[in-house]
Specification:
about 375 residues, alpha+beta, Rossmann fold, OB fold (Dihydrolipoamide Acetyltransferase, E2P), six-stranded mixed sheet, binds adenosine-5'-triphosphate, membrane
Amino acid sequence: MSIRLENISKTFGQFQALSPMSLNIDEGEMIGLLGPSGSGKTTLLRIIAGLEGANSGRIQFGDRDVTNQHVRDRHVGFVFQNYALFRHMTVADNVAFGLEVMDAKQRPNKTEIQHRVKHLLEMVQLGHLANRYPSQLSGGQKQRIALARALATKPDVLLLDEPFGALDAKVRKELRRWLRSLHDEIGFTSVFVTHDQEEALELSDRVVVMSNGHIEQIDEPAQLYAQPNSRFVFDFLGNVNVFEGKLTQSRLHNHNAWITAPSSDVPMNSGQLYIRSHELSLHTEASKIANLPLKVVAVNPIGAEVRVELAPHEWQSEQIWEADLTHSEYDRNPVKRGEIVYAEPRNGYFFRENSHQAPEQVSWQSRSLDETVK
Ligand SMILES: Nc1ncnc2c1ncn2[C@@H]1O[C@H](COP(=O)(O)OP(=O)(O)OP(=O)(O)O)[C@@H](O)[C@H]1O
């Protein structure tokens, strides 16, 4: 079932929780609502569900206008972070609950309910736990049961509010892989809320990045990562180093540090260069591309890479820099805590000063000092 939101807005008293926003979700799509706390993700999800009324706008499920429809009539399944299972009911009864309370005209008969519950429990791979009570289940198992229960009534749309938020990292990873394959197998349309960028990028067909009650960007994960259209999205999606520079003579200067500046058709300007932590290499001296002295603060060999934390040396940056090196890069030049090293960027994104436009992508590969960069 496709979902179409048109000019949806929401205020709580004087507070504008959602500015007017529109969003089209295709049938069978899995959409992640990603944003910091308070950005309006849950409010938007609750409006789609019908648990909250919007102040303006229209909501359509397929051809059906559901704007004024009660939650009960929208055919949505809902999964919350805190499982919300009935403690006094067995697993099987929890899953059957939504079917048992249907009005008589729609309610399947007893045998059909039993059959459907059995099938759902097999689908979430917990058939052997049908007679247990929620207190006898692990967090991951409870959340699978919550999902089976949400799917029991064959909803048109499945809405999930931080479904894995209460689980530890390993179970979380397992469950999200499992949810994605279940989604692909059954083909329901789902919208989930998360503030975990890794979760959003891994699970979603498209990610909706939200901040302060509005949509910053909607894109497929790879596109979002490759072309973040604002500083906010950039900052929110992983480790980034920021070089704030004043432009003089084709170099961006920050005290004694400099990076050769990107060029473009637009007149040059001062601004900020955003460089991801895996787009830096470390050297024993400055190069033609950059003079970026940094003091090594920490070296963490974490799994596939070595993360080096770096403090700007005789120039200014609001945050500590980070370089993610491959183990072989690190082995060639094993930097030590306390050493001064020189960073060289490979690729970056340039935000012009006083501009709200999307950044320009820049690259320094195989270039000399006076070359400009595309
Ligand atoms: N019932 C309410 N009454 C007043 N303000 C509310 C209400 N519900 C939400 N808000 C406010 O609206 C804003 C958006 O809240 P919402 O729960 O949608 O954010 P969120 O992005 O889901 O955050 P989190 O990740 O912390 O759950 C917040 O500032 C919140 O305080």
